[in-house]
Design a protein that fits this description.
Elements (H helix, E strand, L loop, with lengths): L3 H10 L5 H11 L3 E5 L5 H11 L4 E5 L6 H14 L2 E5 L5 H7 L10 H20 L3 E3 L8 H4 L4 E3 L5 E3 L7 H10 L25
Parallel strand pairs: 1-2, 1-4, 2-3, 4-6
Antiparallel strand pairs: 5-6
Helix pairs in contact: 2-3
């Protein structure tokens, strides 16, 4: 749908634009959109920004089943406060079942790839196959991983979906200001069972 040249032009044109402008432009390009979230820190910003432009945008939550109680409470609060149009996707096997058979393998264990496939990649693929979005809003930011440093506000997913990261150039300090200004909650007690280190790429975005 989009060429690399168009992506480059969009990134140049919107480098200094406000998130709301970026989101409006993405909806002008195609309104078949989803926003994905895992309710990690600062996710309330992207959810608020997108739903402020298009209130009923489908929100895809891929829940690994290993979130902290704090994350689940935070998710419930944000869903309620922003009246999100939430679509929940979970692994086909419960975490209780998997704990008995595999547990949470270390990043170097041979089972790690299967674990990541089960708790993260398969539910995400299922979500994208069901929604078939042309635009995918996400809260990726520069400085998080080497891969994320290379993509810009607009990029293309492996499947050719236009991926839009409206807060791409924002620092945590600036995001703190956004959350405060819009009276949005944040929660830092977040656990991703597929990562050993915070700066590893999770597999969905690479």
């Amino acid at each position: 749908m989009f060429t690399e040249n168009q992506i480059k032009e969009l990134n140049e044109a919107f480098k200094d634009a406000a998130p709301a402008e970026i989101i409006k432009k993405a909806f002008e390009l195609n309104d078949e959109a989803v926003v994905t979230t895992n309710f990690r820190p600062y996710e309330a910003a992207i959810l608020h920004a997108v739903s402020s432009v298009e209130a009923k945008t489908p929100v895809v939550w891929c829940d690994t089943g290993y979130n902290t109680p704090q994350t689940y409470r935070h998710a419930e609060q944000v869903i309620k406060d922003l009246d999100l149009n939430i679509f929940l996707y979970v692994p086909k096997q419960t975490s209780a079942h998997r704990d008995v058979i595999m547990g949470i393998p270390s990043i170097d264990a041979p089972e790690h790839a299967l674990f990541t496939e089960q708790v993260k990649l398969e539910p995400f693929r299922r979500a994208m196959e069901e929604h078939k979005p042309k635009v995918w809003f996400t809260n990726l930011r520069q400085g998080q991983t080497a891969f994320r440093d290379s993509i810009g506000i607009f990029s293309l997913s492996k499947d050719g979906v236009l991926k839009v990261s409206p807060f791409y150039y924002w620092s945590e300090e600036k995001l703190d200001g956004y959350l405060e200004e819009n009276k949005l909650p944040n929660e830092f007690k977040y656990f991703d069972p597929t990562k050993a280190l915070e700066n590893r790429e999770c597999g969905l975005h690479a």
